[in-house]
TrEMBL record:
It comes from Microbispora cellulosiformans. GO terms for molecular function: alpha-mannosidase activity; carbohydrate binding. This is Alpha-mannosidase. It holds the Pfam family Glyco_hydro_38N. SUPFAM superfamilies: Galactose mutarotase-like, Glycoside hydrolase/deacetylase. Belongs to the glycosyl hydrolase 38 family. One of its GO terms (biological process) is oligosaccharide catabolic process. Residues 13-213 form the Glycoside hydrolase family 38 N-terminal domain.
Length: 954
């Protein structure tokens, strides 16, 4: 038997007892938790009986918290074992999928996980990533920012890694020592199964399977697997038993011992840079990117509402008393000397309600978002029952974040007079963009604070007579009124005269209203027949082109339309003056709708592309983990009918609606009982209308597209195709704080077909064409680098298939998942633009920011003139390629997360009302002071560096 004590030339086998606990997967959360209680009861009992026993959780703290919620009496036992180093917990809260949530969500995941683990005795100081389906390019930097200099993982490692240790370098150059797990996180799960006398043979077989992998003096024998119970016999086996922390610390290969660089004393190790998405050594299950698309859409909406609206706007516009701020114990950095409590920016009288638990709402939203980011949750590779719970949790996260936005909106509305419009900019740079507003017909004009007219475009009039009916008992009207609501509007006033009772309503009513006054008026009207009219104030819906300062507001006053005509517009939207063809042109981009419903685009720099938006339908007999076409796959892209309708035509926005009708197979193969036949023949067709709403706005160099359909086919994949202006040998895609360069193929070899589909969060670009994304989506560069395909929907009927043509082994149980067919209405939003040069020269990160983050418009509701403001929040961020990923209040100061999404070094310039600034780590601990000159901080950033800075008034 190979040495159990490290003697001789053979590497020592170190047994790491562990479990990987999927909180939800083929069973929903609570059903799995019942098993978790049993397993952790056994773990704690084993550790109480045997001081030599060690156990490692799978990197996520949530499983321990789930257990303690049902077994609160064992908190002391858990805390003692964690503090003693015998039970390894954390550092993550959840084992998230690294590509299907934002980089900020990954950082908050670590923050919440390490904070919770610290309360139990300390987090495992290893970035343990046992089962994620590949790893994002910025993970080394994310871990290092939280003080973690070691990682341990399995999937995504390329073939050139031929040892169990390698140096992993992130997009910015941060390098961490990484332990690879050959054979996976359960490579020794069978070591202690079978009779005890057979253990030497099983150990020898394990050592043989690991031959050639050991870099140092040890081999990790990962004794456990999915939902596995502890094996007590390990401590009597003669093998060393350790937690993952102990095993990695004792191997002499930690970063503090040797970095594998020239001149080091230890062995040289392979080096890998960027994301880990190779199929070479394990499957990475890329189909999860496009499984259950509505989950991805909901996740993106919830993250945006929370990170870019609720947190920053509440930090800037809702100054909260220090007694209600995040407690110092929850903000590790504490409040540095000299930081001051800010006065309310809207002036006195506009603070949130005294009991408004803003920070608690934000925490609740974050916990729901993080819980939904799990690698079997937002991925959609789960049972229908689980997916339904994930969707509900994401919805709750978005609603909770929106509740905070509502508090901000109410404060902003109350500080502006009734009839005005408050427009808020969520971006850290000045924006000029469109907002929609309902204005009284008599006051359908907006002017800014300087009295300058705001460009407007009328989009439509609302009906004024909403209902007219005869009642023989006027008291029946009270049954239709809910507080102030009537027919979806708000009651403004009422009048009774000549047998007619008139109720006037408005979409956005404000001012005094009393239900009792209305009730009294109805009772005093007397008996008999009454004509009851519900009348809306004459309202016109307009698009307004508004300029708003960075992270600031613009208060626009309404007034009577001026006879002088509309305000001037830079780059106005024009249509074909002769009406010969559907054309939109704003001087920055020209969009022409072709007869087949595709688009021709020409940029101001002359870059041109035709045939954009071809919709291609094909079969998919795979599962939620892996796409797989049928052996005979008919790709259908020709519509049977095309119609084009002009919706509006400028000068601020122009819209065409393109309806293309297709006949697609209703189901692939042998009927609805079991999908996955051999071809698409022999079944009936379903007539499907795919509607593309293409919009071009004044001043924008990209076309906004929304593709909608009623998904009625099963076992299929529908993609949106666009030719590239020039051939491409690579693509660039933004996601998780980086812009990743990828080739046209994927490395294979790990038991699944290396389909070169890739994730992108905010944009994907290749060959002079960029697609700006609303949510994490799947794209592929096809046609030998001549076309981009973006997946709109992928409909499958099984969680996993035992026989998937594109995967050797099942990825989970063969369980029907009919809801993964994604039947019903579906809409996908994105922007598209051609460009010359490189992605960063086209300014794609900023364009994606503008596409993804709408200006926020709030009708004023205050009485009288505008309230005198306090000192308005003033904060801006500039710098080539510098992106603001997050902004929040943290213990009385502002915390901003900046990212240099640029291939060369750049400088971030932050200006605002602050006199002290310093850098911080991902957990909020101060690092280095920054010089502040004239309310400005300048910070040099490496390419793709993530910087956290704190700002304070003194």
């Amino acid at each position: 038997m190979p040495s159990g004590n490290g003697s001789g030339a053979d590497p020592e086998i170190v047994v790491v007892p562990h479990t990987h606990w999927d909180r939800e997967w083929y069973l929903p959360f609570q059903r799995f938790r019942a098993g978790l209680v049993r397993v952790l009861d056994e773990v704690l009992d084993a550790m109480a009986a045997d001081p030599a026993y060690r156990f490692t959780m799978d990197g996520q703290l949530a499983a321990i918290e789930d257990y303690l919620e049902l077994r609160p009496s064992r908190r002391g036992d858990v805390a003692r074992l964690v503090a003693e180093g015998r039970l390894a917990a954390g550092p993550w809260l959840i084992l998230a999928d690294e590509f299907l949530c934002s980089g900020e969500t990954l950082l908050r995941n670590l923050e919440y996980g390490m904070r919770g683990a610290a309360a139990l005795g300390g987090a495992m100081p290893v970035g343990y990533l046992p089962d994620q389906f590949g790893h994002c390019a910025q993970m080394p930097q994310i871990l290092a920012l939280a003080g973690l200099r070691r990682a341990c993982l399995w999937r995504g490692v390329p073939a050139r890694v031929d040892r169990d240790v390698f140096d992993w370098t992130g997009a910015d150059g941060t390098t961490i020592r990484t332990r690879y797990l050959p054979g996976g996180y359960g490579n020794a799960s069978g070591l202690f199964t079978g009779p005890a006398e057979g253990l030497p043979d099983r150990v020898a077989a394990f050592a043989a399977s690991m031959e050639g992998w050991a870099t140092g003096g040890s081999l990790l024998a990962m004794c456990g697997g999915d939902h596995s119970a502890p094996v007590r016999e390990v401590t009597t086996s003669g093998l060393r038993v350790a937690t993952l922390t102990e095993a990695l610390t004792a191997d002499g290969l930690a970063p503090e011992h040797n970095h594998g660089r020239a001149g080091g004393n230890g062995p040289a190790v392979p080096r890998v840079r960027g994301e880990l998405r190779s199929h070479a050594r394990a499957n990475i299950l890329p189909g999860v990117i496009s499984a259950r698309v509505p989950l991805k859409q909901a996740m993106a909406r919830a993250e945006r509402t929370l990170v870019r609206y609720a947190e920053p706007l509440s930090a800037l516009w809702l100054a909260r008393p220090s007694s209600r701020r995040h407690a110092a114990g929850n903000a590790p950095g504490g409040r540095p000397p000299g930081s001051a409590v800010r006065a309310h920016p809207l002036g006195p009288g506009h603070e949130p309600p005294g009991d408004a638990p803003v920070q608690r709402l934000l925490d609740m939203a974050w916990q729901a978002v993080i819980a939904s980011s799990g690698h079997d949750s937002v991925t959609g590779c789960c049972s229908d029952e689980t997916a339904l719970q994930v969707a509900a949790r994401i919805a709750e996260a978005g609603q909770t974040a929106q509740a905070v936005v509502d508090l901000v909106s109410a404060a902003l509305a109350g500080a502006a007079p009734k009839g005005s419009l408050v427009v808020v900019n969520p971006s850290p740079f000045e924006r000029t963009g469109l907002v929609l507003a309902d204005l009284p017909e008599s006051r359908a004009r907006l002017v800014d604070a300087a009295g300058r007219p705001v460009p407007l475009q009328r989009l439509g009039h609302a009906p004024t007579l909403l209902d007219e009916t005869v009642m023989d008992d006027l008291r029946l009207l009270l049954g239709r009124i809910h507080e102030r609501e009537l027919y979806g509007h708000q009651i403004v006033s009422w009048d009774a005269a000549d047998g007619v009772f008139t109720v006037t309503v408005s979409r956005h009513a404000s001012g005094h209203y009393s239900y009792e006054d209305l009730r009294r008026a109805i009772l005093e009207a007397g008996p008999g027949f009454w004509v009851v009219r519900t009348v809306a104030e004459p309202v016109v819906t307009v698009a307004a082109l508004v300029t708003v300062p960075p992270l600031g507001r613009a208060v626009l006053a309404s007034g009577s339309p001026a006879p002088a005509g509309p305000a001037a517009v830079a780059h106005p939207l024009r249509v074909d003056p002769y009406g010969f063809e559907p054309v939109l042109d704003n001087g920055l981009l020209r969009v022409c709708v072709a007869g087949d419903g595709t688009l021709s685009l020409r940029a101001a720099d002359g870059t041109e592309v035709h045939g954009v938006g071809r919709v291609v339908h094909g079969g998919d007999v795979g599962d939620t983990y892996n796409y797989a076409p049928p052996p005979i796959d008919r790709l259908l892209d020709r519509p049977v009918d095309v119609s084009v309708e002009e919706i509006c035509s400028g000068p601020l926005t122009g819209v065409y609606e393109i309806a293309r009708t297709y006949d697609w197979p209703a189901v692939i193969g042998d009927g609805p009982e079991r999908s996955g036949g051999t071809d698409q023949s022999g079944g009936e067709d379903v007539r499907t209308v795919v509607t593309t709403r293409v919009e071009l706005r004044a001043g924008e160099p990209f076309a906004r597209c929304e593709v909608s359909m009623d998904v009625r086919c099963r076992d299929h994949r529908v993609r949106w195709h666009a030719p590239l202006p020039r051939p491409a040998a690579e693509s660039h895609a933004e996601g998780q704080f980086a812009v990743v360069r990828r080739g046209l193929t994927a490395e294979g070899g790990g038991g699944e077909r290396p389909v070169p589909v890739f994730p992108a969060e905010s944009f994907a670009a290749a060959g002079g064409l960029a697609v700006l994304l609303d949510h994490v989506g799947e794209y592929e560069i096809t046609g030998d680098g001549t076309e981009m395909a973006v997946t709109l929907v992928r409909s499958v009927g099984y969680l996993s298939r035992n026989r998937n043509p594109y995967r050797d082994e099942p990825a989970g149980p063969e369980m029907p998942a009919p809801a993964a067919q994604c039947q019903g209405p579906l809409s996908v939003r994105f922007g598209v633009l051609p460009y010359a040069g490189e992605w960063h020269e086209a300014g794609l990160p900023r364009l994606a920011e503008e596409f993804r983050h709408d200006l926020l418009a709030v009708p004023g509701s205050g009485a009288g003139a505008a309230s005198p403001p306090g000192r308005e929040p003033a904060l801006s961020v500039s710098g080539e390629g510098v992106v603001m990923a997050a902004l929040r209040e943290r213990d009385g100061r502002l915390e901003a997360r900046l990212v240099a999404e640029h291939p060369t070094a750049t400088e971030a310039v932050v200006r605002g009302d602050f006199t002290a600034a310093w850098t911080a780590d991902a957990l909020g601990f101060p690092v280095d002071p920054l010089p502040v000159r004239d309310e400005c901080v300048r910070l040099r950033l490496r390419p793709f560096e993530i910087a956290t800075i704190h700002l304070s008034e003194s």
